[in-house]
Amino acid sequence: MLALTADSLFAHRGLHDESRPRNSLAAHVAAADAGYGIEFDIHLSQDGVPIVSHDPDTQHDTGAFRRIESTPAAAITELVYRGTDLHLITLDTLLEYVPPSVPLLVEIKPTRRIEAVVDAVARRLSQRSDAVALQSFQPSIVRAARHRHPQFLAGQLGEAPASTLPLTRRLHALSLATNALVRPQFLALEVSTLSGAAAVFWRRHLHCPLLAWTVTTPEQVWACRREAAGMIFEGFRP
User: Fold this and answer.
1) With contact defined as beta carbons under 8 Å apart, do 232 and 188 qualify?
2) Around Cβ 10, how many Cβ atoms within 10 Å?
3) Would you say 86 and 26 are in contact if contact means Cβ atoms under 8 Å apart?
4) Comparing C-alpha atoms, which of 238, 149, 163, 156 is closest to residue 190?
């Protein structure tokens, strides 16, 4: 299993900038070349292929609207990021270009196709289990990953309880109560919540590693060091 420590460093959606869009192959290769682990997002296409994308559709990244879960992979990967000639990619493409030794932090986005997406991701990563951790905001995905594919670390993502969130998600953010059932093997928490009551409670009871997202300032770096949290960073090189 991947060892997560206070020294763990993951480039958030790759090492992206104006010429290398978030989650693009160029951003991920740049992160690997710089010696960082890579954090990226997965949605499942209509035909069951894991697509590397933060959003559930392609509008923001490409200017063309395709809802990933209802579109075949081939129709998604023919699209290019705005202002570039870089195509959206599948997980298979990322793995083709990123060496097996590079730590991967795979966020599986919320979905109703829980077993399908967990199995599709795990199948492709089966030869890299020592360098992979799976995470999600959706507790049922974390639970499925733990039970169906115990060779991978499975972690619960947590966030600040912003008023813009739906009520159920806000309550979960405040308490992370489903941890009692899911028993995640690590926590990946929004950096502003590291010293909050839920974070302190569950770290004490689960005795598991902690990651912080998304770290963008020197003050947040110090917060991570104070709490012995690994970093999912963006906008600078730690």
Assistant:
1) yes
2) 27
3) yes
4) 156
- Output the CA torsion 166→170→172→175 (10° steps): -170
The span from the CA of 224 to the CA of 227, in Å, is 5
Q: In terms of DSSP bridges, do strands 153-158 and 89-90 run parallel, antiparallel, or are they unpaired?
A: unpaired
CATH number, span 9-233: 3.20.20.190
- Please check whether residue 77 is in contact with residue 47, taking contact to mean a CB–CB distance below 8 angstroms: no
pLDDT tens series, the chain, 238 aa: 899 999 999 999 999 999 999 999 999 999 999 999 999 999 999 999 999 999 999 999 999 999 999 999 999 999 999 999 999 999 999 999 999 999 999 999 999 999 999 999 999 999 999 999 999 999 999 999 999 999 999 999 999 988 687 888 888 888 999 999 999 999 999 999 999 999 999 999 999 999 999 999 999 999 999 999 999 999 999 9
**How far is the C-alpha of 104 from the C-alpha of 91, rounded, in Å?**
11
- Pairing type for strands 50-52 and 37-44 reads antiparallel
Domain extents in the chain: 9-233
Task: State the DSSP string of 75-100.
Answer: HHHT-B-TTSSPBPEEHHHHHHHS-T
